């Protein structure tokens, strides 16, 4: 009994330490965002600002086009989410229902492709976009985000499709419905939670992405929020700390709010995808 109680206390202590570890950067970011320059330069920093101010937020909006960059990020993230779901839904249905070697090979490729580093993909993607005339454009960035998020979207939706009973589709086939009609009228409505979770996952991934946007977007008017945040760092590597923290805080809020709303569904999709039927 004592061993069980001690183990439970140790588990809760480890969980608390992990939560503190995760929350510390965000809490410190909030603290810096509301501190005036004098407190930022203090040799004895405090958690709670002694004289909180909104000047950092005003200065951030004055120095950089945060609203325009936010709109670019929103368009890229929404476009990537919608296109990824439209492609992944029928593809995941085929991968889940087919039992041949081709379906197994496709599933294996989806898993393996998650291990590809960014640097390995950026050169071929850059060449493809250059031939299509989509370099330095938000539509080109959307294509890259779709390619990057599609494997995980397929994995998630495949797990959801496998959770749908085959008997429902067989009953629809008896009534004369074809594959497409069955997918649209029977399977897709049951995949609602999975489709929503997949779309929001693709949205969060695109919203927070930095490397592809940095390489592909050169015109300042087309850059996304993660790239604009680097403009608060001077040529000598000295950061304008207050405005940078304020802008980073605003840029982080949308993804945090979205993830807080869908984290249960994302976890459910990952667990469903891990179960072999």
Automatic annotation (TrEMBL):
Residues 70-262 form the ABC transmembrane type-1 domain. GO terms for biological process: transmembrane transport. The keyword Transmembrane helix applies. The chain crosses the membrane at residues 12-34, 74-96, 108-129, 141-161, 182-207, 244-262. Its main location: membrane. Belongs to the binding-protein-dependent transport system permease family. This is Carbohydrate ABC transporter permease.
